[in-house]
Amino acid sequence: MNILLIYPQMPDTFYAMKHFIKVIGKKAAYPPLGLLTVASLLPQEWQKKLVDLNLSDLEQEDLKWADFVFLSAMNVQEESVREIIQKCNEAKVKIIAGGPLFTHEYNRFPSIDHFVLNEAEITLPLFLEDLLKGKPKSVYETKEFADVTQSPLPAYELADMDEYIYSIIQFSRGCPYMCDFCDVTALFGRRPRVKNSVQIIRELEYLDQQSDVRLVLFADDNLIGNKRILKSDLLPALINWRKKKKPGFFFATQLTINLADDDELMKLMIDAGFRHIFIGIETPDENGLKESRKNQNLRRNQLENILKLHQAGFIISGGFIVGFDTDTPSIFEQQKEFIQQSGIPLPIVNIMKAPPGTELFDRIKREGRLSKEFAFTEGETNIVPMMDEKILYDGFIELITQIYLPEKSYERLIQFFNTYKFPKTSIKIASKYGINDIKMVMRIFYLLGIKDQNRKYFWKLIIWALVNNHKFLDKALFYGIMVFQMNQTFLHIKETVEDQNQHILLKKESNIA
Fold first, then answer.
1. What is the DSSP string of 424-437?
2. Mean of pLDDT values over 275-298
3. Edge-to-edge strand ranges of the sheet holding 47-52
4. Within 13 Å of residue 412, how many CA atoms lie on the same side as its CB?
């Protein structure tokens, strides 16, 4: 069998980091871990090829070569998925699809031949068994969850790892919390299932052989969901491995704000090499947190927690939401003040949306408030809001204007620099520099220091670091690129929101007239 694994293109959202990627000369953020895992579950004797549309185009020769196309996608990639399906149908190549986009709404894609849903460790062998018998079914799904200690080493060799910003692995699946707008528990359950440290270290060492690794993303929905095993197995093993092997890369991951409650866990994570963390902060308004059952963020001073994490040596990216049913028009100013005061270098603000499979989706559907198919991008929603729509969209645009314009990003970054403390750890991670890094720095200085119209903020960050603390120079360079990324994506979101909601604006203006 010739198997073509296709990963769809990501649209221009903060998670895609398209503008950051372009500046540093890479092509995409991270490789498709799901497809690389699926590839390892297929028979070894089959020929496999990965086409990541974020790196290259899908060619007709690829489709002619393929006996089957394996397609995996998230909700945000639907537009690209539709184009892939059309090309495969025209080439008469059968498609086997899986991933979050299809899990709850596969009926929306009648042109796909077979769906292998939920976790591939369980459903893919069932499909392969039927395929060998010549009688594959249309849909394979399960309510069971996989034993991830049996998950194979992903086929990283299929990916051109040097074209990505991050390398990627996964330690756990599932989350113990029940935020009503999050589909993680619907997809992976409430009991976090974890790999053992031997698996993780084997994956890290294999990654290190495949590419010049600088940052490894632990693609967990909540890395600290199972603190007991994290503290007793993974983190001690990573620390010992670092002491012996001295790898020259850091870790990034996603977790919950209650990390700030556990000093021992913070120290272990720092010693293991974790630095960049994404936290779903959502809102400073407790009514919104209570309504959505974001209980882990309640009864705490989130600003103090953020400061504590920054001063422990973590660098936070934060998720924020407006459009809770409990929100009033004052929420936009509240969010702006909180975000700017927090010093979070990269805040990602979304309008509330209801993913299929979540409690929120079911409630909004019962209430007759679903407005369209699920929309993932920051400025879209599939919910008819309780707040007046014009107030919501005007407030959202004003909020992102007040945090993403270069001068606002600069102000927030200086707040970060003034409060951040470098981690106290005896386990040092040596920086690696080569000729490609020199070329990349020259490219950055040309594109952002000379060519960009907002170059003064790039230079202000560099000068601040040189004058106040030269240890911040690499971060000033990094966040100088991030200022550009935030501004470019802000402009795209603003244009999209205004274009998609002209009918609301025109209706209001007509009423006034």
1. --S--------HHH
2. 97
3. 47-52, 2-7, 68-72, 94-98, 114-116, 139-140
4. 27
